[in-house]
Amino acid sequence: MTPTGPEPGPLVIIVADDLIWSSRLASIVARAGGRARTVAGEAAVDDAFAGPAGRPALVIVDLGGRRYDGVAAIAAARSAGVPAIAIGPHEDVALRKRALAAGARRVYANSKMHAEGPALVRAWLAPDALAAR
Q1: Tens digits of per-residue pLDDT, 75-125?
Q2: Domain segments of the chain as ranges
Q3: Quick one: 43 exposed, middle or buried, by C-beta within 10 A (0-12, 13-18, 19+)?
C-alpha cells in the first residue's frame, strides 16, 4: 500500500519558552516545510536529541529564554552533531559572540527571523544543505 499525502518534513527542534515566540517559530518551520518540536527548560533541551521523533535536522535556539541557557543548548546541539542557529536581540553583541563560540552556525536578529523566517529556515532545510552537514 502506498502512503498518501506528503512526506513529513525534516524535524526542527525549537528551543524557546515564550509561548507567542515559540508558536511563531513553529509556524515558520511549518511554512518552510519542516516539522517543529518545541522544547523549553534544561531537562527538555537535554532530552530533545534522543526523543522518539528521530534525529533533528536543525535546532533553532531563542537566546532570550528564561528557563534554559541558550548558549548551553547550542553547545548540546553541537555535541549531538546537530546544526544549530540562534535568534536574539541584534544589540547584544556579546551574547551573539558567545552563541557562535558555542557552535551556532548563524545568529539572526529577532527582527530578521520575524520578517524573513520561512525563507531562512527553508534554506537550512534544503536537501543540498542537509546533505552538506
Answers
A1: 999 988 899 999 999 899 999 999 999 999 999 999 999 999 999 999 999
A2: 11-131
A3: exposed
**Cβ partners under 8 Å of residue 48, min gap 6:** 13, 15, 37, 39, 56, 59
- Its pTM stands at 0.89
With a CB cutoff of 8 Å and minimum separation 6, the contacts of 111 are 90
- Is residue 34 within 8 A of residue 121, CB to CB? The reply is yes
CATH of domain 11-131: 3.40.50.2300
**Across the strands, what pairs with 15?**
39, 61
